[in-house]
Write a structure and sequence with these properties.
Elements (H helix, E strand, L loop, with lengths): L6 E5 L6 H8 L5 E15 L3 H7 L3 E20 L1 H10 L4 E7 L5 E7 L8 E6 L1 H4 L7 H13 L5 E4 L7 H12 L6 E5 L7 E2 L13 H14 L3 E5 L15 E2 L2 H18 L2 E3 L2 H4 L14 H12 L10
Parallel strand pairs: 6-7, 6-8, 8-10, 10-12
Antiparallel strand pairs: 1-3, 2-3, 4-5, 9-11
InterPro entries: AIG2-like_dom (IPR009288), Ester_Hydrolysis_Enzymes (IPR051532), GGCT-like (IPR013024), GGCT-like_sf (IPR036568), SGNH_hydro (IPR013830), SGNH_hydro_sf (IPR036514)
Organism: Streptomyces huasconensis
Protein name: GDSL-type esterase/lipase family protein
């Protein structure tokens, strides 16, 4: 049996209460003071009776992004078993994600389960579908930007940096230089379909293709974390293979698009990264695809409505 690993978990609320720790972990756990920049807090009403019983409170606090703010708390030093107990304690409003502490160290923290709900400044990197090709209104990204900025024009920003034809390799290479001037708290990656396309010639470079996708996702995750930004990965939309044609030496097939979908989902699950599946909203609806690959304006509206499910306006954390 392998030895239990050590984990660091940032908390500022009930998990710092010794009574809660003894209930969850059977003991008080070691803690170290810590600060998390770029966040503030707000209240969240809890309805889970077990959580209320453990904490003695029906209102907890949640982390909310806010440039120039900081939250003081502590890092809990936990075993695998402790971390699993903490996960079980958190209600469905929360998801465990990586954050960068003021000290420069990374740690787990429980964030809003709807990744775009607490976002203020969103950067989108992706390909032609994220760019909005075949939609004069700018695609799902433009709809997301309009709604997001309308909620708070003074603080909310969306920067769509998608490039038609881009691969994950190119997004990985270009993203580090794009983030600093835009100060994002959220990085939305919508690419990979070009990596999984079937090359019609031997012209593809060794850095492209399915075998390198996880490497590029690892790198993009590290880039986002270096800015203390939350990574959100969008899975591909359904491909109507009967109507796709060859694009610049590439052929797009449903089987390879489905393989990309499964690869992205598996990586996100393994790394506790937010994943939004765009496959089902268009699956079996060829009328919503202009050419079998790029959504029509109506198709982009459907994809935007799927994204709206992760932009709810209530929720919180410990």
């Amino acid at each position: 049996m392998s030895a239990s690993r050590s984990h660091t978990l940032f908390s500022f609320g009930t998990l710092l209460d010794e009574r809660v720790q003894k209930t969850l972990f059977g003991r008080a756990v070691p803690t170290t003071p810590a600060t998390l920049d770029g966040y503030t807090t707000r209240p969240l009403r809890i309805t889970d009776e077990a959580v209320i019983a453990a904490s003695g409170l029906d209102v907890h606090l949640t982390l909310v992004r806010r440039l120039g703010s900081a939250v003081r708390g502590a890092v809990l030093h936990l075993t695998d078993e402790d971390l699993a107990a903490a996960d079980a304690y958190e209600v469905d409003d929360y998801a465990r994600r990586r954050v960068l502490l003021t000290s420069g160290e990374s740690a787990w923290a429980y964030l809003d389960a709807k990744p775009l709900r607490p976002a203020e400044r969103i950067v989108i990197v992706g390909d032609s579908i994220a760019y909005g090709r075949c939609d004069p209104q700018g695609g799902w990204a433009a709809r997301l930007a309009a709604a997001h900025i309308a909620r708070n024009e003074a603080a909310h920003r969306v920067f769509n940096l998608a490039v038609p034809g881009a691969t994950l390799s190119e997004a990985d290479e270009q993203t580090p230089g794009l983030l600093a001037p835009r100060r994002p708290d959220t990085v939305l990656v919508a690419a990979g379909i070009n990596d999984f396309a079937l090359p019609l010639t031997g012209s593809r470079t060794p850095g492209d293709g399915p075998s390198r996708v996880t490497d590029h996702l690892d790198s993009l995750a590290a880039t986002a974390l270096s800015r203390n930004a939350r990574l959100v990965v969008l899975g591909p939309a359904w491909v109507d293979e009967a109507r796709t044609r060859d694009y610049e030496g590439l052929r797009f097939t449903e089987a390879r698009a489905l393989a990309l979908r499964e690869s992205l989902q598996a990586w996100c699950d393994a790394n506790h990264v937010d994943h939004v599946d765009l496959w089902e909203p268009l699956r079996g609806r060829p009328e919503l695809l202009e050419d079998g690959l790029h959504p029509t304006p109506e198709g982009h509206q459907v994809l935007y409505q799927r994204l709206e499910l992760v932009t709810g306006r209530s929720g919180a954390e410990h």
